[in-house]
Amino acid sequence: MSGAPLARTVGFQPGERNVFFHLLTACNLSCRHCYINPTQHGTATLPLATVLQWLKLFARAERQTTLILLGGEPTLHPQLAAIIKAAKSMRYAVTVDSNGYLFHDLLDRVTPKELDYLSFSLDGPEAPVNDPIRGQGVFTVCTENIRRAVALGFNTSLIYTVSALNIDHLHRMPPLLADLGVRRFFIQVIGLRGNPAVQQPDGASNWQVEPQRWLAVVPQVAEAAARLGIHVVYPKVYLDREEPFQCAGMVAENFFIFPNGRVYQCPLCEDHPIHSYQIEDNRLVHRDGLNEDRFFPLTIPEGCVMNRLLQPDNIAYQPDGTPVHRISCCLLKQEVLPLI
Ligand code: SF4
Ligand code: SF4
């Protein structure tokens, strides 16, 4: 195949359903940009029986649902293998998002047939970039476990969270991923949530990436990865002039479940008690009041209303007061399909 790989926007599909299930909030690492918030999300490790009950609430017999198992570090859950097998039997397509440590011998306890994707996180193409962000020794552990997973036949993906600390190193990721045998590459952009919003001891408070920098770097890296046979996905972030704005809360089914039973539809809202649903006695209960779902229908020139409310520093304005870019829904993705 030849020609330039094309980035396309992955629109929200009717009936598509994604469940992001945080099984626990505990983690063995302390990444500098970690957004986990035990005050808002709880500190429990959900028992197996509870996880299975909650999975039943979101499964549909007639259609596959995508399930992403998260933490904290989900492989710290001692029954993760049983959860994966049960989810598969409920017609979920299952992904585990791990920091790479793969506790409880996960690779020996599930098969590539049972786990659709095993996703790893790295924030640099080598240890001197990655480890100051994610922790000493993390690069070596993570890449060794990626190689083990690939050798055993698991589909692997990798998440790279772009910030001002590592955007200059992103272009060195595609060759590394090709060498490791990673099939999908998710490029995320850091949000002004949790630690990144706090003044750092070294005085660096803004880890955000300027729009021009993001647009100059990320599409080119995605194209380079696609040329190496890797499927790349990254957030749209800025809408083109002619592109329609859509809020996933209005047109898609996404559920972000936390161990304290909170269920959000919008990930930007996760640090605030404005979740649309609560799981009570193993039932999904819609919450009345001024919660996230009351904001989704609002139409503003900036695009995403939650971004305007919670991350206003992300938006630049023209002298006449109109926004320079409209901010897309944070769940809207661009993808570049592999060229080989
Ligand atoms: S691995 Fe994930 S949950 Fe753990 S500290 Fe890093 S960002 Fe937070
Ligand atoms: S990020 Fe914005 S557009 Fe997307 S679901 Fe949340 S409020 Fe809606």
Describe the protein.
The chain is of the alpha/beta class. It has a single domain (about 5-245, about 330-335), classed as Aldolase class I (TIM Barrel). Helix content is about 25%, strand content about 20%. The chain has helices at about 40, 50-60, 80-90, 105-110, 125-135, 140-150, 175-180, 210-225, 250, 290-295, 305-310; strands spanning about 5-10, 15-20, 65-70, 90-100, 115-120, 155-160, 185-190, 230-235, 240, 255, 260-265, 275-280, 285, 325, 335. It has a 13-stranded mixed β-sheet. Strand 10 (about 255) and strand 11 (about 260-265) form a beta hairpin. Helix 2 (about 50-60) packs parallel to helix 3 (about 80-90). The chain is globular and about 60 Å long. Bound molecules: iron/sulfur cluster (SF4) (2 copies). One iron/sulfur cluster binds near residues 36 and 73. One iron/sulfur cluster binds next to loops. This is Radical SAM domain protein. GO terms for molecular function: catalytic activity; iron-sulfur cluster binding; metal ion binding. Its cofactor is [4Fe-4S] cluster.
